[in-house]
Design a protein that fits this description.
Protein name: Aminotransferase class V domain-containing protein
Strand content: 15-25%
Family: Belongs to the class-V pyridoxal-phosphate-dependent aminotransferase family. Csd subfamily.
Organism: Aquimarina muelleri
GO molecular function, one term: cysteine desulfurase activity
Helix content: 40-55%
Strand order of the largest sheet: 11-17-16-15-14-12-13
Cofactor: pyridoxal 5'-phosphate
Length: 665
C-alpha cells in the first residue's frame, strides 16, 4: 500500500508505508541505544555510590566528583560560563521558592521533564552575583557550616540552597542524559517508547521472591551494586568496605530494576504506581490511608520544612507557637523550626547514653500549655528524631507521644534513621507527622516522604497540588522506594534488628580493645537500653584528628566512614564538652577561614549489606592505625612515607578518573 506525503516545498512524494515504519523503528532504535547508554552510566555511578562532600572513602570521593561535574555539564549544555554562573539542583517546588528570590534575567533553568526523562530534577543556573543573601528559604542538613543554639554560619555556593541530601543519582542521570542529547539529538528521549508493565509485578515480583527472613537478606547481599568493588589502598588493592549507611545507603539489583522500569511507564501506570507505593508506605508504617495522607517530596528535609512552614502560617490568635526539640536533632529537624517566623524553639537535654528525659519533656509541656508560665507561648509541636544519627539511640516514641498529646501538642518524628531499622506504628503510637528519605532505605533515587494525619496541613488546594506534583515527578524514585520497603518487609524488621544488634556488639567489643579510642553513647552490651540502639557508633582518639583518622581508614583499609559534626552540631559540642568561649572562637575562625577543620568524631554506621568480615576489617585497620610507632622519625623514614603517599595519590587519581569515565564517557 502506497501513501502520498508532501515535502517541505509542498510537492508530493511517494513513501511506502513499510519504509515509514522502518524509519520509525530506526528512530526508536536510536532512542533505545541512548537509553541503554544512560542506564549503563547510572549503574556505573551506583557501583561507587555514597553521600557527597562530607564523608571519607573512595565512594564518597567519586560521588562528590560526579555530582560536582554534573553542574559543569548542565552549564555547558545551557551555553553558560562556569566562571559567572553556578548551578543549583532542585525539585520543582524548591525551584519555585528559589526563583522567587531572584531577579528576572539573573538565571536560567532546565528540567528533566524537558529532557524527556522523569527524574524530578531542575537545574537552575544562577549568576553568582545574584545569589540570595541571608538565610535560605529552605534549610536543613548541608545548608549550614556551623550551628549554635543562637546563631548559624551558612554555607557558601550551591550547598546553601540544596537543603538535605540531594538526589545525587538522579542528578548524575540528568547530566548524563544532557551529554547524550548532544550526541543523539535534543529529542532523543522524547521519542523513547513507553514500556507498559503491571504495577504489582514491578513492585512485588523478582528473582528473590521465594526467599524471606535471614535467607533473603543473604541472597539480597549478593545483588548489591558495587559488591566486591576493588579499590587502591596504601597496602595494595582491597575490597571496599562501606560503613557509612547513616549518610546514605547503597542499593540492590531488584530496587534498581524497579527504578529503571518505572521511568518508562505510560502516564496512567505512573498514577497506579504512586497509589500502590502509598499503600506500601501505609502498611509498613502502620498509617491507614483513611487516617493519614502520604506525600512524596525530595527528602526528609523538604518534608520537615513543609510542616514548619505550615505551622508558621497558622493564624491562631493570642498564641505564640513554640516547638520543642532535643539536642539530639539533625540540622534538618532544627533549622527549619528556628527559621520559621515568630516561633520559639525549646531544647531538651539528654542523659549520658543519649536519651531524652521524659520528666523534662512533661515539665516543659505542662508549664507552657497548662500552667501558662511563659505568657502566650504554647508548645504546638514536639519534633523528635526516631533514632539519633550520631548515637544511634531510639527514644521511646510511645511514651513521648502519650505525654505530648496529654498537653495538646502534636508529635513529629524525624524517621530518617528509623524506618530501615525498626518497626514503626504511627496510628498505634499516635504520631501526627513522620518524615523520612528513600536514600536511607536502600533506594538512593531522590524521594522523600511526609506522612501526616488528615486535616493537619493548612495549605490551600493549589499549594497541595503543587507540592504533590513536585514529588511525583520522580516516578523512578517512588518505585524504588516501594520496592525497597517490600524487600525490608519480606526480610522482617525484627530480623534486621537482631542482625544489627549482633554486628553492633561486635563493633563495640572490638573498639573496647583499642585503649586510645573513646566511644560515645551506649557501650555496655548488657545495658537494658542496648536494645534501643541501632548500628551507629561514634568515637574519637586524642592522638589523631577525626578527619585524619577517617582518611587513614580508607587509605590503609579501603573503609568508607563519615567524620565531623554530622549535621548535629549541638550534640557533638555537647559530647566533646565544647566551652562557650571556644564556640565563639570557632565562629570567629570559621568566618575568616571557611575551610578550617572543626572538632568532630568518626562515625561507623551499619546496613543490611554489612557482615562480620566487615567488622573484623574495621577493628584490624583501627588497631594498625592507633598502634603505629610514635616518636622521632628519621629523614629516610619521612622520605619513604612521602613516596608511598605520593604513589597512592597517583593511584587514587587514576581510580577516580576511571570511575568518572565509566559514568560520563
Amino acid at each position: 500500500m502506497e501513501t502520498t506525503m508532501y515535502n517541505n516545498e509542498g510537492g508530493a512524494s511517494e513513501i511506502s508505508q513499510p519504509k515509514q515504519e522502518e524509519k520509525d523503528k530506526q528512530k526508536n532504535s536510536k532512542s533505545e541505544i541512548a537509553f541503554a547508554e544512560l542506564e549503563r552510566g547510572v549503574y556505573a555511578a551506583l557501583e561507587t555510590y555514597s553521600n557527597v562532600h562530607r564523608g571519607s572513602g573512595h565512594n564518597s570521593m567519586v560521588s562528590s566528583c560526579l555530582y560536582d561535574q554534573a553542574r559543569n555539564i548542565a552549564l555547558e549544555y545551557m551555553g553558560l560560563n562556569e566562571e559567572k554562573y553556578i548551578v543549583v539542583f532542585c525539585s520543582s517546588k524548591r525551584t519555585k521558592n528559589l526563583k522567587s528570590q531572584l531577579k528576572p534575567g539573573t538565571y536560567q533553568s532546565l528540567t528533566s521533564q524537558e529532557v524527556g526523562i522523569p527524574l524530578g530534577i531542575t537545574a537552575v543556573a544562577i549568576d553568582k552575583k545574584a545569589l540570595p543573601k541571608g538565610s535560605p528559604s529552605e534549610c536543613g542538613g548541608g545548608t549550614a557550616r556551623l550551628v549554635a543554639a543562637g546563631w548559624v554560619i551558612w554555607n557558601n555556593g550551591p550547598d546553601k540552597f540544596e537543603a538535605g541530601t540531594p538526589a545525587i543519582v538522579n542528578v548524575i542521570a540528568f547530566s548524563k542524559s544532557l551529554l547524550l542529547l548532544k550526541q543523539y539529538g535534543k529529542d532523543i528521549f522524547k521519542k523513547l517508547p513507553n514500556t507498559d508493565q503491571d504495577i504489582k509485578e514491578l513492585l512485588y515480583k523478582d528473582e528473590l521472591e521465594k526467599y524471606s527472613g535471614v535467607e533473603l537478606m543473604k541472597q539480597l547481599r549478593e545483588t548489591l551494586i558495587g559488591r566486591g568493588f576493588i579499590v587502591p589502598t596504601m597496602e595494595g588493592e582491597k575490597q571496599f568496605v562501606n560503613l557509612d549507611n547513616s549518610a546514605s545507603t547503597p542499593t540492590f539489583i531488584p530496587i534498581w530494576n524497579a527504578f529503571r522500569h518505572a521511568i518508562r511507564l505510560p502516564e496512567q501506570r505512573k498514577q497506579d504506581l504512586v497509589r500502590e507505593v502509598k499503600t506500601i508506605c501505609s502498611e509498613i508504617l502502620g498509617a491507614p490511608l483513611d487516617t493519614y495522607d502520604i506525600i512524596f517530596t525530595k527528602n526528609t528535609t523538604e518534608s520537615i520544612n513543609l510542616v514548619s512552614e505550615n505551622l508558621a502560617n497558622e493564624t491562631e490568635k493570642d498564641i505564640d507557637p513554640a516547638v520543642l526539640i532535643s539536642i539530639l536533632e539533625h540540622s534538618s529537624n532544627d533549622l527549619p523550626w528556628r527559621m520559621a517566623s515568630k516561633m520559639s524553639l525549646i531544647r531538651l537535654g539528654i542523659d549520658a547514653d543519649g536519651f531524652i528525659d521524659l520528666d523534662e519533656l512533661e515539665t516543659n509541656l505542662r508549664e507552657h500549655n497548662q500552667e501558662h508560665k511563659y505568657g502566650k507561648k504554647r508548645i504546638k509541636i514536639v519534633a523528635i528524631s526516631g533514632a539519633s544519627n550520631v548515637l544511634g539511640t531510639c527514644n521511646d516514641i510511645d511514651k513521648i507521644s502519650s505525654i505530648t498529646h496529654k498537653y495538646g501538642a502534636q508529635l513529629l518524628v524525624d524517621g530518617a534513621q528509623l524506618v530501615a531499622h525498626r518497626k514503626v506504628e504511627m496510628e498505634k503510637d499516635e504520631i501526627d507527622y513522620m518524615a523520612f528519605s528513600a536514600h536511607k532505605v536502600y533506594a538512593p533515587f531522590g524521594t522523600g516522604v511526609l506522612v501526616v494525619k488528615k486535616g493537619l496541613l493548612n495549605y490551600n488546594p493549589d499549594e497541595i497540588k503543587q507540592i504533590e506534583s513536585s514529588g511525583e515527578e520522580n516516578i523512578g524514585g517512588i518505585a524504588s522506594l516501594g520496592k525497597a520497603l517490600v524487600l525490608l518487609r519480606r526480610i522482617g524488621l525484627d530480623v534486621i534488628h537482631e542482625e544489627e544488634q549482633m554486628l553492633t556488639k561486635r563493633v563495640l567489643k572490638g573498639l573496647s580493645t583499642i585503649p586510645s579510642l573513646r566511644v560515645f553513647g551506649i557501650k555496655d552490651l548488657n545495658s537494658p537500653k542496648f536494645d534501643q540502639k541501632i548500628g551507629v557508633i561514634v568515637f574519637e582518639t586524642r592522638e589523631i584528628l577525626h578527619n585524619k583518622l577517617a582518611k587513614e581508614m580508607f587509605q590503609k583499609g579501603g573503609i568508607g566512614v563519615r567524620y565531623g559534626c554530622h549535621c548535629s552540631h549541638l550534640l557533638i559540642k555537647n559530647l566533646l564538652k565544647t566551652h562557650p568561649v571556644l564556640e565563639q572562637v570557632q565562629r570567629a575562625v570559621l568566618t575568616v577561614s571557611p575551610k578550617t577543620q572543626l572538632p568532630g568524631v568518626v562515625r561507623v554506621s551499619l546496613g543490611i549489606e554489612n557482615t562480620e568480615e566487615d567488622i573484623d576489617t574495621l577493628i584490624d585497620v583501627l588497631n594498625k592505625i592507633t598502634n603505629q610507632p610514635k616518636g622521632k622519625v628519621s629523614s629516610d623514614q619521612k622520605k619513604a612515607t612521602a613516596q608511598v603517599e605520593s604513589d597512592f595519590k597517583k593511584q587514587l587519581d587514576k581510580f577516580s578518573k576511571a570511575a568518572i569515565q565509566r559514568v560520563y564517557a
